[in-house]
Design brief:
alpha+beta; four-stranded antiparallel sheet; five-stranded antiparallel sheet
């Protein structure tokens, strides 16, 4: 939406709120700033029809009627009692946060809702400074094809069916789900709902949902259980696995800065004549930790547990086989990196 159109909508809302009479389209054209730019009657009425649809999409109660029985043309107004909210007061930092949030969404489905929120706030007399935070350009993108149909199904309260892969290499399986919401968690989008096939609450990563996503059944059939915390459900399902142990590794001085941020230093130590530190790392997924450690070569040495040291060796062997033709014996000797 252009800034000119947004301003025209705000002016239109204020105009229709300020009158108890029904105003005809021609009267609105004459008194609301922005409509004078229409180059012809046809252009004005196209503009007017778009604006009416926009107001109704925003949930603004636009009434249609006539001033008297002698009028031949419909007029319009907004029922103040159905529209007005309680007093809304935002501190300067809160107003800046609202403006920043409106710029956050990078998808048509959510960008429209964000713009609608700004129009409603301005119509309520709240000044929202969109220039605040211009140095920050936040984006929450939703590029998965399943996002739009799933969001529409959630809003309509309809059951959905789709093909889903539990993991990237697994075969896709047909799922029938009562969708409760679409949630963003750590850069990924998830559908949360009741899986009818398994009679259980499940979370589905949108990137593993294949098209088409079909909405079935009547509108309003799906109800979110009271007290449901969608983010908590995703966090529990898609969050980090539980800690199963602690790994101790030696890290060369001045090396593996990223690994140091993830662990806890317990003290200095020399290894092979090189100065360094002992680092403790939480073991949630040993394979992931093995890749972290193995990527630093001889700058990181696994002290314990031996299972992690073996996983690092296996990773190095696999890398050597993938890049050496034929595999030379020398690269297999990795004792300098793993005790």
């Amino acid at each position: 939406m252009s800034s000119a159109r947004a301003e025209r909508l705000v002016n239109l809302v204020l105009c229709l709120l300020s009158t108890r009479q029904f105003l005809t389209a021609e009267r609105i054209r004459a008194i609301v700033p922005g409509y004078a730019n229409a180059t012809s009657d046809e252009a004005f009425f196209r503009m007017w029809e778009r604006d009416k649809a926009e107001l109704r999409d925003l949930g603004i109660p636009l009434e249609t009627g006539r001033r008297s029985m002698f009028d031949t043309v419909d007029g319009y107004r907004i029922a103040r009692q159905d529209y007005e909210l309680g007093d809304v007061e935002l501190a300067p930092d809160e107003a800046a946060a609202v403006a920043l949030a409106a710029r956050l969404w990078d998808s048509p489905e959510l960008a429209g809702a964000a713009r609608g929120a700004l129009v409603k706030l301005r119509a309520a007399g709240v000044e929202v400074d969109e220039s605040a935070g211009m140095g920050v350009e936040p984006r929450v993108s939703a590029t998965e094809p399943a996002f739009a149909p799933l969001l529409a199904a959630v809003q309509a309260g309809r059951v959905v069916t789709f093909e889903h892969r539990p993991n990237p290499t697994a075969d896709a399986r047909l799922r029938t789900v009562e969708p409760w919401g679409v949630v963003s968690w750590r850069g990924r989008w998830y559908l949360v709902g009741h899986d009818r096939d398994r009679d259980d609450t499940r979370c589905f990563r949108l990137s593993r949902i294949e098209e088409p996503v079909s909405a079935v059944g009547p509108t309003g059939a799906v109800r979110v259980p009271d007290g449901t915390d969608l983010v908590a459900l995703v966090r529990r399902t898609a969050g980090p696995p539980p800690v199963t142990g602690v790994a101790r590794v030696w890290v060369a001085a001045g090396r593996a800065v990223g690994l140091r941020r993830l662990g806890r230093l317990t003290g200095p130590m020399e290894h092979g004549g090189r100065p360094g530190d002992v680092l403790e790392l939480e073991l949630r997924n040993p394979e992931t930790v093995a890749r972290w450690v193995g990527g630093h070569g001889p700058d990181v040495v696994v002290l314990e547990p031996p299972e992690l040291a073996d996983a690092v060796r296996q990773g190095w062997l696999a890398a050597a086989r993938a890049h050496a033709e034929p595999l030379a014996p020398a690269p297999v000797e990795v004792g300098g990196g793993v005790r």
